[in-house]
Amino acid sequence: MRGLFIALLWLILTNHAVGQPADAQEREALRSFLEDTISDASSFDDRYDAEVWLVDMSARLARFVKDPKHRLELLQDIHAASAQADLPPELVLSLIEVESHFDRFAISRVGAQGMMQVMPFWKNEIGRPDDNLTLNKTNFAYGCRILQFYLQREKGDLHKGLARYNGSVGRRVYSDKVYRAWRDHWRTEPLDWAD
């Protein structure tokens, strides 16, 4: 059954428009990579959860990230950072879509960096001035923990927590954008978007 699922996963990922492997050797390398990626997905409850989530989210992410190997690595890193911060990974994917459209080199007009648009001053605040915010794992670790902090501070209110994350306290324009991205592209389970 596991082999069948890996074969199905491979077909879904490689036949999704761009990113189709060019030859048999590349296809085999991708198949092996998929199996290793799923086996390494330690932030999931079990292997089946990893397979289902990675296949589903990879298909959704294909419009932003064409390379299937890169999508899986990215999704695994996002899921791991989300799990460590006790955040729904779909919320983090929504935030990244709004903040950077999955561009790790994005820099905002105020200097925020990376996919989650983390302000560089945080590096000095925690005594890690040499951290590189364009490295995805670093950016996700910072961004997810910052979002976790603001959501805890706002007692789980998604609109208020996201407004704090974005620096737009008292307004809902940003949180509404994240909500629409979640609703239209990333939703898997309900989140409490209460007013």
Automatic annotation (TrEMBL):
SUPFAM superfamilies: Lysozyme-like (SSF53955)
Record keywords, A-Z: Signal
Origin: domain of life: Bacteria
Segment forming the signal sequence: 1-19
Stored Gene3D superfamilies: 1.10.530.10
Ranges for domain Transglycosylase SLT: 78-171
Statement: the UniProt record of this protein carries the keyword Membrane: no
Pfam families found in the cross-reference section: SLT (PF01464)
Record has Hydrolase as a keyword: no
Family: Belongs to the transglycosylase Slt family.
Record-given protein name: Lytic transglycosylase domain-containing protein
Organism: Candidatus Seongchinamella marina
